[in-house]
Design a protein that fits this description.
binds alpha-D-glucopyranuronic acid; globular; single chain; two-stranded antiparallel ribbon; about 425 residues; alpha/beta
Length: about 425
């Protein structure tokens, strides 16, 4: 080959590979100190944290990131749509409940609940939203097929963005139902599209209009986006679980993968009834420290998914330093409750090290309560779970997903707190 052509090829190839790789993380950043309030005062006690710094951080997230959740209380009505006491070969009870948010029954979500049979006492529960409809989490033919709109259009399971019979169990690899039940836990799940379709064009197709003032046609810049709406739905599911005698509602672990991991963290930050919070590969806008600018950034996320966060969050596109919080403070809002952050080795888009560091930098708040968090600034290696205290972390070998390995760690972690 002619020498100049070879040189040109090398230049083109290296430019292409640089584009496909992440830029190195920015290491020059300074994170807001989780304990230092905006007036410059250092938080020295649990009392000061709970009275001053925690409310301040929560408000900063509401005003600048996820947006405010409306305070208006909606009267809820729960209707049991089906119960099968011998589901999954007799090992479980499957209950389906429709939670209505309006008297005209126009607004509702469908909760699918599996409970282990023969538990003998109320059980702890993992609660999480799902992407594919309740029927996607298990092939059990008794599960109602969601008639809602889906982002998916991959036939035969989803045709023209609607689910078919073929969608049954298509995401069972993310939901280890039998393993969860065998460990003595219940599982509650809801299709996130019941609350708001995951599309920038469909902000008014979910429950948001229930909260509009007269004449309002879209959430204001400081009001919630879809992540706030989905998180609200998780709290309403917990309202239901509190009425369910077979469930120990003081032992509910809220869990979510990816955008639904961002959602689980926000639900857990706002609603202290969630006893454990689990973030699976939540990345940007979830557990990852945003000032590292590694993998996805605020701007990239806000452009691709403008409906997820508040209008105000767009102000920080490419201006991470100006954001008055960073995401270790989202983790700190959960303290002292146990929180588990999980990454995956091939999921560099979600910045595994940044996800770890948010747990590490939230640790001083856990320490205020006299409990341990993450003690080393260096993330652990692959498949090496860490955290003897109230913050757990692992980086699973593999892709962006929620897998058996992840569930094994979550169950082990939850056992430590729920089986005392
Ligand atoms: C995209 C998005 C992430 C998100 C993920 C998911 O990759 O950029 O922010 O977490 O989708 O929800 O699967």
């Amino acid at each position: 080959m002619n020498k100049s052509i070879a040189v040109l090829l090398i230049i083109v190839c290296s430019a292409l590979s640089a584009r496909s790789q992440n830029k190195p993380a920015d290491t020059s950043y300074t994170l807001p100190d989780v304990l230092v309030s905006q007036s410059g005062k250092k938080t020295a006690s649990v009392k000061e944290w709970e009275k001053i710094r925690r409310p301040e951080i929560l408000k900063l997230f509401e005003d600048n990131v996820q947006g405010k959740t409306p305070g208006k209380k909606i009267p809820l009505k729960f209707a049991i749509t089906s119960v099968n006491a011998s589901a999954l070969n007799g090992t479980a009870t499957r209950k389906q409940v429709r939670a209505y948010f309006s008297a005209d029954e126009k607004y509702y979500m469908d909760i699918l609940l599996y409970l282990p049979n023969n538990a003998g006492k109320p059980v702890p529960v993992f609660l999480g939203l799902n992407f594919g409809g309740n029927q996607s989490i298990h092939a059990d033919t008794g599960i109602l097929i969601s008639r809602r709109w889906f982002r998916y259009a991959n036939a035969p399971a989803y045709i023209d963005h609607y689910a078919t019979e073929a969608s049954r169990g298509v995401q069972s690899y993310d939901w280890e139902v039998e393993k969860i039940l065998a460990a003595g836990y219940g599982l509650a799940t809801i299709y996130y599209g019941d609350l708001q379709p995951d599309s920038a064009a469909s902000v008014n197709a979910g429950i948001a209009p229930l909260f509009y003032d007269t004449g309002q046609t879209a959430p204001a810049d400081d009001q919630w986006g879809a992540i706030g709406v989905w998180a609200w739905g998780l709290s309403r599911a917990l309202d239901y679980l509190e009425t369910e005698k077979t469930v120990d509602a003081k032992k509910v672990a809220v869990i979510g993968h990816s955008r639904l991991g961002k959602t689980a963290l926000w639900a857990g930050a706002q609603d202290k009834r969630f006893a454990i919070v689990i973030s699976n590969n939540s990345g940007e806008g979830g557990a990852a420290v945003t000032r590292r600018k590694y993998g996805e950034t605020i701007e990239v996320m806000n452009k691709a998914f403008p409906h997820w966060f508040s209008g105000n969050f767009k102000k920080y596109n490419n201006r991470e330093e100006e954001l008055p919080v960073d995401f270790h403070e989202l983790i700190a809002l959960i303290a002292p409750r146990p929180v588990y952050i999980a990454s995956a080795s091939e999921d560099q888009w979600a910045d595994p090290a940044g996800e770890y560091l948010s747990g590490y930098y939230a640790t001083p708040v856990y320490n205020l309560y006299g409990v341990k968090g993450l003690t080393s600034v260096t993330p652990p290696g692959i498949n090496t779970p860490v955290g003897e205290g109230n913050i757990g972390y692992h980086m699973r070998q593999g892709e962006h997903a929620m897998r058996l390995y992840d569930w094994q760690q979550y169950i082990r972690f939850a056992d430590r707190f729920f089986r005392k």
